[in-house]
Design goal:
305 residues, two-stranded antiparallel ribbon, 2 domains, six-stranded mixed beta sheet, single chain
């Protein structure tokens, strides 16, 4: 599969201190470089700079749909999983669904017990003994359908180990099982991989120009380069079914070994997390990100899964 960039926007935040907007004093802001972009194409990007990120993301999705982009699932992190996005997806005429990580905060969902937060729902489900164990992912999980943003959505809660932290997923697809939802959402990580590749190989974010238009141009060129390289790789890596079968047969032993090694590593990390009372997911991410060889092994394991 190929990952392709469709759109982007650059945003700035005012910050929480009114006297230091964007972390700068009035004097520091007045001394910043500025240019007049009136009438230029970059003017629209400047207006986006102070937009609320969720509002801009919704605009992006609508624009993509209008341009003919079709998708089965829109995958978002906890920053964008909100009522507005649920309403956006459920109101589209195309058949698509939302899967997003949720924050275990103050947001309330309507259940048969009344309006409850995610943590309160987890406590209720644990009390009723409806939590299950998934042997494939080696985690405890529970599922519940609730009302949110005027529609029925499905919530999945999961944790690794007895002392692990609960994590939550929300989806508008009521036919999804926990395993299918987890594996589908896991593909969102390819976005982070794409950003990493752009930073390491294509100089993404290293433009030092003071002109905002130059920053926009630099980001645009990086994404065009990435899309071209992905397309070339996809075309050059094409093989016939027969050649693909022979290669797969030749690598069966290697993949099986990677599968077993990864399972052993995963079991070891879970045991360590239990001993030191750490969150297994965070520990696993830290180990993979900090070791290129383990990251490569993880990629091989995903091919098997």
């Amino acid at each position: 599969m190929s990952r392709l960039f469709l759109d982007f926007s650059l945003h700035g935040e005012e910050g929480r201190k009114p006297e230091k907007k964007q972390g700068l004093t009035d004097k520091q802001r007045s001394e910043r470089f500025s240019a007049d972009y009136t009438g230029q194409s970059v003017e629209e990007r400047i207006r986006e700079y102070t937009m609320k990120k969720t509002d801009k993301a919704i605009e992006m999705v609508k624009y993509a749909i209008r341009r003919g982009i079709r998708f089965d699932y829109l995958l978002v992190d906890s920053w964008f999983t909100c009522a507005d996005f649920v309403k956006l997806i459920t109101s589209r005429h195309i058949k698509c669904h939302l899967i997003g990580m949720i924050k275990l905060g103050k947001t309330k969902y309507h259940t048969k017990w009344g309006d409850l937060t995610a943590n309160q729902i987890i406590a209720r489900l644990q009390k009723q003994g409806v939590t299950k164990h998934n042997r494939t992912l080696k985690c405890t999980y529970c599922t519940i359908d609730v009302k949110f943003a005027g529609t029925t959505v499905r919530l999945f809660f999961s944790k690794r180990g007895r002392k692990g932290q609960w994590n939550g997923l929300l989806t508008t697809d009521l036919s999804l099982s926990f395993l299918k939802a987890y594996r589908t959402y896991a593909t969102r990580w390819t976005t982070e991989v794409a950003y990493h590749d752009c930073k390491q190989l294509l100089g993404f974010g290293k433009c030092q120009s003071l002109h905002f238009s130059a920053q926009i141009a630099s980001t645009t060129l990086t994404m065009i380069q990435y899309n071209i390289l992905c397309t070339v790789k996809r075309l050059e890596a094409y093989e016939t079914i027969g050649a693909l079968f022979r290669e797969a047969a030749g690598n069966t032993l290697e993949l099986s070994a990677a599968d077993r090694i990864w399972e052993l590593i995963l079991d070891t990390i879970l045991e360590i997390a239990e001993i030191i009372s750490a969150d297994a997911s965070e520990l696993l991410s830290a180990v993979i990100d900090g070791n290129p060889k383990l990251h490569k092994l993880y990629q091989m394991y995903k091919l098997i899964a």
